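Reader question, answered in our methods column.
A reader sent in the components of a multi-part assembly and asked whether the whole thing could be modeled at once rather than chain by chain. We filled in our standard form and ran it. Here is what they sent:
COMPLEX SIZE: two components
ENTRIES:
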Amino acid sequence: MDTIAAISTPLGEGAIGIVRISGEQALRIALRFFTSPRIHKEEDVIPNDLRLGVFSDGAIREKCMMVYFRAPHSYTGEDMVEFHVHGGSFLVSKVLEAVLGAGAKMASPGEFTKRAFFANKLTLDEAEGVAAMIGAESEAELRGAYSLMSGRFRERIEKLSDELTKVLSTMEAALDYPEEMADEADDARARAVSVRAEMKKLVDSFKEGKLIKGGVTVAIVGKTNVGKSSLLNSIVGYQRAIVTDIHGTTRDVVDETIVHKGVKLRFLDTAGLRETQDVVENIGIERSLSAAKGADVVLYVAESNAEPDEAEFASIRGFSKKIILVKNKVDVLGVSEKGLNVSAKTGEGVGVLLDEIVRAALGDFRSEDSLLEERHADCLRRALRSLDEALVAWEDNNEECVLVDLRESIGAISEISGKGATERVINDVFSRFCVGK
Amino acid sequence: MRYYDAIVIGAGHAGVEAALALSRLGNQTLIVTLSEKSVSHMACNPNVGGTGKGHLVREVDALGGQMGLNADSSLLQIKMLNKNKGAAVWSLRGQTDKDVYHENMLSTLRAAKNLEILEGECEDILVEGGKAVGAVVSGEKIGAKAVVLCTGVYLSSRTITGEEIHEAGPYGFENAKNLSAALLEKGLPLRRFKTGTPARVYADSIDYSVMEKEDGDYDIGCFSFMTEGKLLEQTPCYLTYTNEETHRIIRENIHRAPLYNGTIHGVGPRYCPSIEDKIMRFADKERHQIFIEPEVKDGELMYVQGMSSSLPKDVQEKMYRSVKGLENVRFARYAYAIEYDCIDPLALSPSLEVKAIENLFSAGQFNGSSGYEEAAAQGLMAGINAARKIRSLPPVILGRDEAYIGVLIDDLVTKGTNEPYRMMTARAEYRLSLRQDNADKRLTPLGREIGLVSDERWKKFCDRKAKKEAITEAFKEKVPLAKVAELFRSKGETASVGMTIEEMLKRSFITASDILPFLPESLRDPDLAAECQIDVKYGGYLLKEKAHREEMRKMEEKKLPVDMDYLAMQNLRIEARQKLDKIRPITLGQASRISGVSPADIAVLVTHLVKTNK
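And here is the structure of the entire assembly that came back:
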């Protein structure tokens, strides 16, 4: 059986968020991300022991707690792992995403409870408790999942599954009616390839979709004393960061969130970049770079009469595609031809800068076109994986294997739309082809 | 009053399997037919098998049924459909001599122990205390512990050719006039379906020289696992096409088509459209295939597949004669549509017992299916389960992952059908595992347990199985590099290491016959080796199917109590409550396949089960 995972706390802001994993691979997957001084291999993990450690995956590196429940002594009766991380939907969904990327499957509504049932783990009291809950929650989720999707996204999903159904029905018709279908032109593969392209686009749009849900992280970096903290203060509208004329005032990353044009922007003010012997400051600079790495948009701030440091700029460009060159202090130093002119002190240009940040992060992305829900993204990712496998099997002319993968792919999409595949395919066969004696 | 263990009503493809299964399992059985002439009559196409259907025939055979053997005894031609595709979708189809098919089955019935044939019309089912206890045949009350309804298309049937309507069964046979009303009175949900058949024409009035000749395959086996050898002498079929002129004639006369002017009310199958239906629905198509198939060996009649119609006779003559090679064709029988009564299969449990009347079973077209093979498969299962009911044994219910038969019956009793149901491979989720070559491996042990597999068949099965296992074991033998390289070179490929036979077979360019020389001499059976390599070739995909099957199995193992009060379960959505109450699924798995029952409803059922189990 697959290993499944889901966020078990309500989405939104909260002190703690819990990501739950259940199945044979739970611990193996968890230890790909979790490190703790006394834990080096699976055997080191003590069951039922809440342990502090670090969850790291690419951009994220978060202190968190992990607890492992060994089968059968868990809710589902399977091996289970829970990550207790700092709340905030952005972080929790990052953790879930990492876990799904490592091979876990997104749990469907009620699936943890279903597994618990199959393992005979549910007692009477618990069952009564969850009965109402599941009824209410997953029903809402199931109905909601589809109706929540705004018009265009629903259309795109339906188009994908309609197209894929056509591919499938063409091939199924050829299998069930080999003689009659000999006359029909077969464009199944070409169709599948174009569905794949569209599906990939949608899956990729989840990056933007998540930015809308979770917020856009913006790192403010640059040399010392170019006015990064002043810029932050100007943006948030009060003296959030300490501002002095002394180089290297900001030592740690300062974090503040605003909403601009409906998009959550989370700003990270960082220590200025410079060569220094100060141990504390050097740690701060390291953190600046790592904040920039994890950010969706980087503001590289320079004084408006100075050229940016080529080496620094290039190194940031190495890990971030969305950099905005901000020329600060235009009120004193004059307007620059390169970059976006602002004055943190007078607020001049800050509005334009905010617009520019949203544009850089989201482009002309529109939320109603795209994937916003992790569950939808998981379904589509699986659909894409199966479709890719189908295309590989096609290379070897294994048509009946292609069909296994295509069915899986449609199945994964129908988990979003809730429509079964088989009946649709059969209906399609008879409406599109003249087959039968 | 006479008494039997079981009465089977109808001796078509479902009835004969049910009666043979019952009698072979030691029950005194009476099979009732309007006429002995209609026993196993092939009222439509003169062939057995086809895609999906070929699988059914092999499965019926593997369980100890009769259809495969009877088809083999009357074969005129045999073909493996989809031979150019993978082994999972190969399907056998055999042209049969209709007369021989009928005669051989009739002889089998006559020779069967515990089985009696009675000519007459069944007019009513005797029911006492909610249980079937016999039947009324031509006025005589006959007692029985179980009754199996296999009435085919005979219930209040009428045939339609243009303006001509006859109260009759197929091929001019008598119909059953009284049973429908009696069943309705007992509360069975009957409805009206429609099907059709093309004309039969004189063989000597056809110009075959302008048609394409369609030969059979000479290198393949037959339907039954018991039949040795290959069919060496075969009769060809012929292929021709409709043309613009044919289509024009149909379009100009469409107002005279009963389907289009409202004479026919029954629901017809989409996969078996009449020619007028094809022309009207697919106006863009320039031509449609017409196959000319022999009704019997060297006989005077040919079957015109693809030209099913209910248009008036004069229009039929014009349109048939517009087809290349049929310019001078003479008609022996005109095409007709037939309407008949059948049951809504949602009224049946998966054992094919009628839910409302205990000990009453049904099978075949009466259950809303179409096709000889679908009928035979259900007949066999209804017969087996009636026999088990008589002995108070639990029913045999095949899973969707065990057999096409399981898919067929589960679809009918869980999803229902709005048109005559045809088996298709597209309906089987586990197509790679449910192959025609391994039907015996899947089902013969079960058939043995049930008691339908003879010692002879069992011995043959065990030998075949042992040999296949030995071959599969030998696939693990390592072959030295020199030999591998030599073989690969002959295919224009290179090899740099020695490898096992299995590893070689995983390459798409290596076939079973290539590796034959590497097997021990006693195991060099090309047919068996070819079958064994299928599992190797599908390897990874079989694992994918297995994962899905295991998930489904868990749901199938959770039984739902028969007396569950769905209507009172507040947490279920109303649609789910009603559907569950009507269909009364026997497992969670079956419940989950009902349209209108959502995963959330299943979760509610799950928690309810936990509560009540404590």
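What stands out: Residues 325 and 339 of chain A are 5 Å apart (CA to CA). Residues 150-186+373-432 of chain A form one domain.
Send us your own complexes using the same form.
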